[in-house]
Write a structure and sequence with these properties.
single chain; about 110 residues; mainly beta; 4-stranded antiparallel β-sheet; about 0% helix; globular
Protein backbone atom coordinates (compact mmCIF):
# COMPACT_ATOMS: atom_id res chain seq x y z
CA UNK A 1 0.00 0.00 0.00
CA UNK A 2 1.02 3.61 -0.40
CA UNK A 3 3.10 4.87 2.49
CA UNK A 4 4.98 8.11 3.09
CA UNK A 5 7.31 8.48 6.06
CA UNK A 6 8.88 11.83 6.85
CA UNK A 7 12.04 12.33 8.88
CA UNK A 8 14.71 14.92 9.52
CA UNK A 9 12.81 17.45 11.56
CA UNK A 10 14.05 18.85 14.81
CA UNK A 11 15.15 21.99 16.55
CA UNK A 12 17.19 24.57 14.67
CA UNK A 13 18.30 28.09 15.38
CA UNK A 14 17.45 30.95 13.03
CA UNK A 15 19.77 30.87 10.05
CA UNK A 16 20.51 27.17 10.33
CA UNK A 17 19.57 24.41 7.93
CA UNK A 18 17.63 21.15 8.04
CA UNK A 19 16.95 18.54 5.41
CA UNK A 20 13.69 16.68 5.50
CA UNK A 21 13.29 13.28 3.88
CA UNK A 22 10.17 11.44 2.81
CA UNK A 23 10.58 7.75 2.12
CA UNK A 24 7.90 6.46 -0.19
CA UNK A 25 6.69 2.90 -0.67
CA UNK A 26 3.89 1.34 -2.66
CA UNK A 27 4.50 3.60 -5.63
CA UNK A 28 7.31 5.33 -7.50
CA UNK A 29 7.85 8.99 -6.66
CA UNK A 30 9.10 9.90 -10.11
CA UNK A 31 5.72 8.94 -11.58
CA UNK A 32 3.74 11.49 -9.55
CA UNK A 33 3.81 15.17 -8.69
CA UNK A 34 4.99 15.42 -5.10
CA UNK A 35 4.73 18.23 -2.58
CA UNK A 36 5.66 19.38 0.86
CA UNK A 37 3.06 21.11 2.96
CA UNK A 38 3.21 22.41 6.52
CA UNK A 39 0.89 23.23 9.35
CA UNK A 40 1.79 25.84 11.93
CA UNK A 41 0.15 25.70 15.38
CA UNK A 42 -3.42 26.89 15.15
CA UNK A 43 -3.21 27.37 11.38
CA UNK A 44 -4.39 25.51 8.34
CA UNK A 45 -2.26 23.46 6.01
CA UNK A 46 0.00 25.54 3.79
CA UNK A 47 1.50 24.25 0.56
CA UNK A 48 5.25 24.88 0.58
CA UNK A 49 6.90 23.30 -2.45
CA UNK A 50 6.14 20.95 -5.29
CA UNK A 51 7.98 18.97 -7.91
CA UNK A 52 6.39 17.80 -11.14
CA UNK A 53 6.77 14.38 -12.64
CA UNK A 54 8.69 14.09 -15.87
CA UNK A 55 10.55 17.38 -16.16
CA UNK A 56 10.99 17.80 -12.39
CA UNK A 57 9.90 21.40 -12.55
CA UNK A 58 9.77 22.87 -9.04
CA UNK A 59 7.61 25.58 -7.53
CA UNK A 60 7.60 27.24 -4.12
CA UNK A 61 5.48 29.45 -1.95
CA UNK A 62 6.96 32.92 -2.01
CA UNK A 63 7.94 32.88 1.66
CA UNK A 64 10.45 30.05 1.13
CA UNK A 65 11.64 30.78 -2.39
CA UNK A 66 15.42 30.99 -2.47
CA UNK A 67 15.75 29.25 0.89
CA UNK A 68 14.10 25.85 0.38
CA UNK A 69 14.80 23.29 -2.32
CA UNK A 70 12.61 20.30 -3.13
CA UNK A 71 14.19 17.34 -4.85
CA UNK A 72 13.89 13.60 -5.19
CA UNK A 73 16.20 10.64 -5.47
CA UNK A 74 14.57 8.12 -7.75
CA UNK A 75 17.06 5.41 -6.80
CA UNK A 76 15.98 5.72 -3.17
CA UNK A 77 12.35 6.53 -3.96
CA UNK A 78 12.68 9.45 -1.57
CA UNK A 79 11.58 13.07 -1.62
CA UNK A 80 13.63 15.78 0.09
CA UNK A 81 13.22 19.32 1.30
CA UNK A 82 16.44 21.19 1.94
CA UNK A 83 15.66 24.13 4.20
CA UNK A 84 18.29 26.84 4.56
CA UNK A 85 18.30 30.12 6.44
CA UNK A 86 15.49 28.92 8.65
CA UNK A 87 13.26 31.47 10.33
CA UNK A 88 11.02 31.14 13.39
CA UNK A 89 7.98 31.39 11.12
CA UNK A 90 9.09 28.17 9.43
CA UNK A 91 8.23 26.28 12.61
CA UNK A 92 5.55 23.77 11.73
CA UNK A 93 4.79 20.14 11.18
CA UNK A 94 5.94 19.30 7.67
CA UNK A 95 4.22 16.66 5.58
CA UNK A 96 5.01 15.18 2.21
CA UNK A 97 2.16 14.27 -0.04
CA UNK A 98 1.48 12.68 -3.35
CA UNK A 99 -0.44 14.74 -5.81
CA UNK A 100 -3.24 16.81 -4.26
CA UNK A 101 -2.86 15.14 -0.91
CA UNK A 102 -4.92 11.97 -0.98
CA UNK A 103 -1.80 10.34 0.38
CA UNK A 104 0.12 12.22 3.06
CA UNK A 105 2.62 11.15 5.68
CA UNK A 106 2.36 11.64 9.41
CA UNK A 107 4.68 14.59 9.40
CA UNK A 108 7.87 15.72 11.07
CA UNK A 109 8.13 18.63 13.48
CA UNK A 110 10.41 21.53 12.69
CA UNK A 111 11.02 24.11 15.39
CA UNK A 112 13.13 27.18 14.74
CA UNK A 113 14.03 29.07 17.86
CA UNK A 114 16.99 30.81 19.41
Amino acid sequence: QVQLVESGGGLARPGESLRLSCAASGFTVKDYPMSWVRQRPGKGVEWVAGIQRGDDQTTYVSSVKGRFTISRDNTKNTLYLQMNDLKPEDSAVYYCQRGAGVYRGRGTQVTVSS
